[in-house]
Design a protein that fits this description.
Largest sheet: 3 strands, mixed
Strand content: under 5%
Order of helices and strands: EHHEHHHEHHHHHH
Helix content: over 70%
Shape: globular
Strand order of the largest sheet: 2-1-3
Radius of gyration: 22 Å
Number of strands: 3
Structural class: mainly alpha
């Protein structure tokens, strides 16, 4: 429970935490997490570079993939400063304004990724169910408008959340559960009634992650119905193969955050080490694995990336001479 004597009220300072049970392995933990950042940033930047430079990839599926890479980059960059300060420099204090700013960007990019995955699911449905109308339906202008709506939705949901947290009183120094600031974690540190903030947090979860996951499931039910109506097995496999990457990325993204959000809000005891570790894995593995999944399962992306590395190797050999 937070310490809430009137003598030690705001301005608040939060105390970031490492991973419980792994404090003694600080150097090795820092090496692990620090190695994930370059992989995530390089992988997603490479996806964006390939899509931008290849005009034949300026298609709806790849434009949505570029949005996914942008959200993954934003998520990685949002957690980077405090993670490095904790694991490399053991600097754990963070002011409330900085904490709320980081919280806003982490939560916004996280929920934007949910919206992108939903848009990608509907894109796959239209491509499979209405292939002849796909080109006229999924225009670049329409996709741009969808991207703008995703940004407005993500930021718009979390501006009131930050305002609600900012208005709450906090003790002077409050220990958090992670090496970064998350909405339910900061909310529990308040020295006042958090019922409005808690209900609004649940509203965000169910109206975005919850609703998006349901709509994605419905999209794939309709996709499956369409695929089963195709007589040729080869055509069925071809249609389903276009969805494999998205299914893998969607499962990776949705399995943990909804369950963790419910645990964080309704569990009164301190989070177990395993639950905290799962939260870390969700935030860090998703940006790392998404570009890997799409690079392996998407032929055009894979060929272009291999060509980039081949050209790089050839140039190095020439410079060596």
């Amino acid at each position: 429970m937070p310490t809430c004597n009137e003598s030690n009220m705001t301005p608040a300072t939060f105390l970031l935490a490492g991973i419980p049970g792994l404090e003694a392995d600080g150097p090795w933990t820092s090496i692990l997490f620090c190695s994930l950042y370059p992989i995530a940033i390089l992988g997603n930047s490479l996806i964006l570079f390939v899509i931008k430079t290849q005009k034949n990839l300026h298609q709806p599926m790849y434009l949505f993939l570029s949005m996914l890479s942008v959200t993954d980059l934003g998520l990685s960059v949002s957690t980077l400063p405090t993670m490095l300060s904790v694991f490399l420099f053991n600097t754990r204090e963070i002011g409330i304004d900085v904490c709320l700013t980081q919280l806003f960007f982490i939560q916004t990019f996280l929920f934007m990724e949910s919206s992108v995955l939903l848009a990608m699911a509907f894109d796959r449905f239209v491509a499979i169910h209405h292939p002849l109308r796909y080109a006229s339906t999924s225009t670049s202008a329409r996709i741009g408008n969808i991207g703008l709506a995703i940004i407005i939705r993500g930021a718009g949901l979390h501006i009131p959340a930050v305002i609600l947290l900012k208005r709450l009183p906090y003790g002077r120094i409050q220990p958090l559960s992670y090496s970064y600031c998350l909405y339910p974690d900061v909310m529990k540190m308040a020295c006042a009634d958090i019922t409005p903030s808690s209900f609004y947090g649940l509203f965000i979860v169910f109206s975005s992650l919850g609703l998006d996951s349901v709509l994605i499931t419905l999209s794939y039910i309709m996709i499956l119905q369409t695929v089963l109506s195709i007589t040729s097995w080869q055509e069925r496999l071809k249609a389903l193969n276009t969805c494999v990457s998205h299914i893998c990325v969607t499962l990776l993204f949705y399995i943990l955050p909804i369950s963790l959000s419910l645990i964080q809000r309704f569990k009164k005891k301190t989070l177990h080490q395993s639950e905290i570790l799962l939260s870390y894995l969700h935030l860090f593995l998703t940006p790392v694995l998404n570009p890997i999944v799409y690079s392996i399962k998407t032929k055009e992306i894979r060929k272009r990336i291999m060509k980039i590395f081949q050209n790089y190797s050839t140039n190095r050999l020439q410079w060596g001479r």
